[in-house]
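INFO batch 0412 | record 1 of 1 | parsing
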Amino acid sequence: MPDRSLRRVINALSPLTGLLGEDGDVVVVDANGIPSDIPDLLSHLTFLTIDEVRQFVEADSRNATLVPWGWDDSSRQLAGCPEFSGSIPTHDAVLTVNSRRFSAEFDIGHEVESTGLFDGHFGRLCHDDSQVQGVLRQLAVQEIHRWVMKPACSAAGRNRVLGQSTSLNTNQRGWLHMQLKRDGYIYLEPWLPAIRECGIQLRIPPTSGDVADIELIGLTEMITERSGRYRGSIVTHCVDPFWRPAIEHAMLVGRQAAELGYFGPLGIDTMQVELPSGQRVLRLCNDINGRLTMGRLALRLSREFGNDRAGVWLHSAVTDRSEESRSAGKTPAIQRPEIVEAVRVSPERIGGLPSVIDSWLYVTNGPDEARNLVESVRQHVRIQNG
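INFO prediction complete | emitting tokens
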């Protein structure tokens, strides 16, 4: 079970899934996560607990369609109730698509043959101590001294281990042995400075054929901390040509996922990184998410502004801001000349308490202004460049 502080963060973010909803839809929240002081963007929705949803559907005397964040055990159990309709991908397909073993196959760079790394791949699957030590030595030879070990399955950067030595300390070795005992492997990759990051959103429809019609929903650039933690998205109506190779690669990932029997939302993360030589390369697929993502929610916010404008969707913890801005009530957390409109996205209270997350959409006059805004507010939300 998540600790209390993490649960409060989850509860604060849960109502935001309503961005995907239409009039009359219901958003399932925790019993301690009922929102109040709801912004206009979410005012067309009803927020209920699991038990209340069942009662709501039974009273309505018709089937409802379930759109879960991801197909975990609780979602599968709920979807199995007779009140809900719709197809569910197999458990094995979901596990496979969300595994590091699957994503490792696609973790390559665009035109990076001359950069070394691991035969064009950015990381390696390791099945024992000796393989881990071999990869660490190989990274050191390439003058890459920071690295990260990731488990077979994880989400939102959790349960990973970072290091900067060619040998493991006691805690790192203990984590490694625990993962190897449970899953048989870990994924080891270099920790490189991220210049730009982007989330590509696909939808794979249920299909009985060998090839599905993969739909590109869109893409949003990500705003992250030095640690890689997600803090927001840049939302535009146009596609930056820079990301075209990653989009083509993402479609390949989608086709492979469909052939495995997976369908539903699929998010592929890509990034531009800088090598020790100073060369900047496009890492085509550093993560695969067989579920909804914050980037998928961000795309719906593009309806709040015209085609010639761009938005910055920014999330900040209340403790990130000064006491003056915290007491400003509904005043936007930041004031910058790039902003032409500020729209509150998150409820102000969750479970009767002030929300621990403040989420705002800042509308600018275009992508360049949006990127300038991101750079200008990095100190405000304690975000630093990689």
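INFO post-check: Residues 244-259 form the longest helix (16 residues).
INFO record closed
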